[in-house]
Write a structure and sequence with these properties.
Layout (H helix, E strand, L loop, with lengths): L2 E2 L8 E11 L5 E11 L9 E4 L10 E2 L2 E2 L5 E4 L2 E4 L7 E9 L9 E5 L2 E5 L19 E10 L5 E4 L2 E8 L3 E12 L6 E4 L2 E8 L5 E8 L8 H18 L7 E7 L6 E2 L4 E5 L12 H16 L8 E2 L5 H19 L2 H20 L11 E2 L8 H18 L1 H15 L3 E2 L1 H12 L8 H4 L5 E9 L4 E9 L14 E8 L19 E4 L3 E6 L7 E4 L8 E4 L3 H10 L3 H24 L8 H12 L5 H8 L4 H8 L5 H18 L1 H10 L10 H20 L2 H13 L3 H12 L4 H13 L4 H12 L6 H8 L10 H14 L1 H4 L5 H13 L4 H7 L11 H15 L6 H11 L1
Parallel strand pairs: 2-12, 18-19, 19-21, 22-24, 25-31
Antiparallel strand pairs: 1-23, 2-3, 3-9, 4-8, 5-6, 5-9, 7-8, 10-11, 12-15, 13-16, 14-15, 17-18, 20-21, 25-26, 26-29, 27-28, 27-30
The structure holds arginine and zinc ion.
Zinc ion (ZN) binds next to helix 3.
Length: about 850
């Protein structure tokens, strides 16, 4: 039952208007849907009308143009409504379905979260509400009437603008909403419940007044203030950066606690996982505030990139997601520090997308086939998709990029578009031929760019031989060379960029563009061999392979004019050391230290003009995932952990005075603000503490204990607890118990507590996790709890998930099988932990395979889980 891009066909019918009448009444909830349909001139004539359904129950007799249909003229099953001989001209069809929202544990369609009714329709949830042409290229104008008990659901919201509301008999009331913008059904939303609200307003550049509201659980109003602030900043930024204004009279956001993903951009009515709305200094970390800012922006930006212009089909998902991630990343970079945000985005890309692209789940940014679309809301579609847009901007330049965006908005507003149509706008606006660039959308795998240098002192010629290689991925063996823009510079011994003059081979100052498998770039008239700085600011999402000496790397780490590459040089130096160290540990050796790495960190910590946020990033070692990828095959997670831990200990021991001085210079200043500068300060404080504690002395543990107890904000409290979590010490357990008591009534805070314990790199952790599944705050019904505890263990604890006895894999298989019948989407997500199982050493690999086979043998499995297990084992 695979769906293929090549099989796309225009719909045979169009739905111009939709009138929904939703009567919220517990298990007797009724949805009356009145559709104005007509044959699509671009579709096939004379075919039956087949509407999608999923677990639907038809109630009463359907009406065709107001008259009851006779039983022989239609068929209704849970998965389809068929009208055998539809009229040849426009007609009206009225269908009623009966729903039980409280029984909907998949959290797709209409369901209950807490006491509220809410919906999630992307990708294919609308068909769980009513029969419909559930595909993104069917755009309709919606009018929605909601009726509910006044006490149970005083708040009634849907897309668009409010039209009418009033009281009804029997303590009931209603509200009517109208959305003038044609939209696909995946953007439909309604909410009914007893919610508190904070309100604000916004005046758009052209003077439209917009009422803003964020709905939350009663008592949580104050915690929505930062989200509101982020929303207003997002609205202004989109006007300034992209010339995009908001287009309705109201913009509503609702925070719910049971949500499969982060948030959803329904037109005029965004529904959010409350984790991305609620924050206070006592309950949220700086990272939580940053997450709220970027998700609020992301969903808001979808109003243009996603809603006004949507996707023709789900293969084009990156058309809205990659582009919108790009936009939210640019927003965050403008709000905070450009280089630091770039570093953290690239860290994210490397830790999830690179492994995905190198393993059994690899797929192109625009996949060409799927069995379950929910499994394609991936780091590749989102984050690599954003990198592709960034490369496009680098290639054609800022001005042409903006002209291309303007053309895209002008030409495709109100349409369901494709990647080809999107790229054509940039080709036209820039005069570039972007045919080869489109390969970024169709070829999976992270390109490797292999560089060798040649220095000829006698002629002063420096040459770079650059080769590209795109690894084979499932279903794709022969790859074509891609367009790879490499921002670069050559560092002279004074630390400045060498002046390159104009060499015909260099495309633009500071930019090399690869287009074929091999290139040679020559730079003449140099006085000395420069140190190359390639792929500055991570201009392309590639693996750069160049064998620079430690001296070169440590020189670049200190002097590169591109801050991203300073960080990158340091990461490269540490990565090389750690890979060697892991190898020696497996052969019975000891972890390696490297005095110059510790010195480099100390010099950044001690610098007078220190940028705290950057210094923190600079001092964090490559992750275990980074090292796993670098090693590539026959991976032993215990050796990687030991190498990393050993280097941290060595650094800690060598530069303890600098760490202590840095730490005490960053003492808590009392009042909390979530701005980037203060957050940077706290993050560096956390990094220093973490290194001190790993050094193991009682003094350091006492420092962490004090920071934990005295903390006046969650960032400092969490960083102390996180530092303590890596030492097997009674102080750690005391802090964990204290935390549980303090925040017993704060589920989002306890998620941090679950995740931190799940990540403890000790043999006892699996039992601890099993125990925590019985904790009163844990629930298999809540996606956030599952992701924190089970996801925290499977994806955040490489040594214990990959226990050599396979118990970690068996545990995950048990949870996946238990969850699958209730919430297949969340069950399938957990399987992401197996994305690199084939790179493991033989023993673990066999055990991982055994767990995957055990899942695969169960019947029935959801399409979500069976699709992933099949691909994992292929
Ligand atoms: N469009 C949403 C976003 O990017 C994600 C919704 C995905 N939902 C799903 N059930 N697959 O913000
Ligand atoms: Zn999105």
């Amino acid at each position: 039952r695979a769906v293929r891009l090549a099989d796309y066909r225009a719909p045979d019918f169009l739905i111009d208007t939709v009138h929904l009448d939703v009567n919220l009444a517990g298990p007797e909830t009724l949805v009356v849907s009145r559709l104005r349909l007509r044959p699509n001139p671009a579709g096939r004539a004379g075919v039956p009308l087949v509407l999608d359904g999923d677990a639907l129950r038809l109630s009463g007799t359907p009406l065709l143009d107001g008259a009851e249909l006779d039983a022989a003229s239609y068929a209704a099953t849970p998965t389809a409504f068929t009208l055998h001989e539809p009229p040849a001209d426009a007609f009206e069809l009225t269908l009623t379905t009966k729903l039980d929202p409280a029984a909907n544990t998949q959290l797709m369609g209409l369901y209950r979260s807490g006491s509220a009714y809410c919906t999630q329709c992307e990708a294919e949830g609308f068909r769980r509400i009513t029969y419909f042409l559930d595909r993104p290229d069917v755009l309709s104008v919606y009018t929605v009437r909601i009726e509910a008990d006044r006490a149970e659901a005083p708040v009634l919201l849907a897309n668009g603008n409010p039209v009418e509301s009033g009281d009804l008999d029997g303590n009931r009331h209603f509200a009517v909403w109208h959305d003038p913008f044609p939209k696909p059904c995946y953007l439909f939303a309604l909410v009914g419940g007893d919610l508190a609200v904070i309100k604000d307003d916004f005046r758009t550049a052209s003077g439209r007044h917009v009422d803003l509201a964020i709905y939350v659980e009663h008592g949580k109003e104050e915690r929505a203030a930062y989200a509101m602030d982020a929303l207003k900043r997002s609205m202004r930024w989109d006007e300034q950066a992209f010339g995009r204004e908001y287009d309705l009279d109201v913009f509503n956001i609702v925070a719910v606690s049971d949500f499969n993903m982060g948030a959803m951009e329904n037109k005029g009515l965004n529904v959010f996982n409350d984790k991305y709305v609620l924050a206070s200094s006592e309950t949220a970390t700086d990272a939580d505030y940053a997450g709220i800012e970027s998700v609020i922006a992301h969903e808001y930006f979808h109003n243009w990139t996603g809603n006004r212009i949507t996707c023709r089909d789900w293969f084009q998902l990156c058309l809205k997601e990659g582009l919108t991630v790009f936009r939210d990343q640019e927003f965050t970079q403008d709000m905070r520090s450009r280089p630091v945000e770039r570093i953290s985005d690239v860290r994210g890309l490397r830790s999830v997308q690179f492994p995905e692209d190198a393993g059994p789940f690899a797929h192109p940014v625009r996949p060409d086939t799927y069995r379950e679309i929910n499994n394609f809301y991936t780091a590749t579609v989102y984050e690599k998709g954003a990198e592709v847009i960034r490369m496009l901007k680098t290639l054609i330049g800022v001005d042409a990029f903006r002209r291309g965006m303007d053309l895209y908005f002008a030409r495709h507003d109100g349409e369901a578009a494709t990647i080809e149509q999107f790229i054509a706008c940039f080709a036209e606006a820039s005069g570039h031929d972007l045919k080869q660039f489109l390969l970024w959308y169709s070829q999976a795998g992270t390109p490797e760019v292999i560089v060798t240098e040649h220095w000829d002192a006698s002629s002063g010629t420096y040459a770079l031989d650059i080769r590209q290689h795109i690894p084979a991925t499932p279903g794709q063996t022969d790859k074509k060379p891609m367009v790879i823009p490499l921002a670069f510079g050559l560092l002279g011994s004074d630390g400045n960029d060498v002046d390159l003059g104009s060499d015909g081979r260099v495309k633009r100052e500071g930019l090399i563009v690869l287009t074929s498998g091999e290139h040679r770039f020559e730079f003449r008239g140099l006085k000395e061999r420069p140190v190359p700085s390639l792929n500055r600011n991570f201009s392309s999402p590639i693996q750069l392979k160049i064998d620079l000496s430690d001296n070169d790397l440590l020189f670049a780490a200190r002097h590169d004019g591109d801050q991203f590459n300073c960080w990158q040089a340091m990461q490269s130096a540490m990565t090389r050391l750690l890979v060697t160290s892991a190898k020696e540990i497996r052969e019975g050796g000891k972890p390696l230290g490297e005095p110059r790495i510790a010195e480099a960190i100390a010099s950044v910590l001690n610098a007078n003009d220190r940028d705290d946020a950057f210094a923190a990033q600079f001092s964090i070692l490559p992750t275990e995932t980074d090292l796993t990828r670098e090693i590539g095959t026959n991976v032993d997670p215990d050796a990687i952990y030991a190498a990393r831990r050993g280097l941290k200990e060595a650094i800690s021991a060598q530069i303890q005075p600098s760490l202590l001085a840095c730490y005490s210079g960053l003492a808590d200043q009392g009042s909390y603000t979530p701005d980037a500068k203060s957050a940077g300060r706290r993050s560096l404080r956390g990094v220093a503490l973490d290194l001190l504690v790993v050094g193991g002395g009682d003094e350091a543990i006492a420092l962490a204990e004090r920071q934990y107890a005295d903390a006046t904000n969650m960032t400092d409290r969490m960083s102390a607890l996180a530092s303590l979590s890596q030492v097997d010490h009674p102080v750690r357990e005391r802090a964990f118990s204290d935390f549980a008591e303090r925040f017993a009534n704060e589920p989002l805070v306890l998620d941090k507590w679950f995740a931190l314990q799940a990540a403890i790199p000790e043999r006892g952790t699996l039992d601890r996790v099993r125990g925590l599944m019985n904790h009163p705050a844990f629930s298999m019904g809540n996606p956030n709890r599952i992701r924190s505890l089970v996801g925290g263990f499977a994806s955040g604890n490489p040594t214990q998930f990959n226990r050599p006895d396979g118990a970690g894999y068996e545990f995950l298989a048990d949870v996946v099988l238990e969850l699958d019948p209730k919430n297949p989407q969340v069950a399938a997500r957990l399987l992401g932990a197996f994305r690199s199982w084939k790179t493991l050493e033989n023993g673990r690999r066999a055990l991982a395979e055994q767990a995957l086979r055990r899942i695969n043998a169960v019947s029935p499995l959801s399409a979500d889980v069976s699709d992933l297990v099949t691909r994992a084992l292929a």
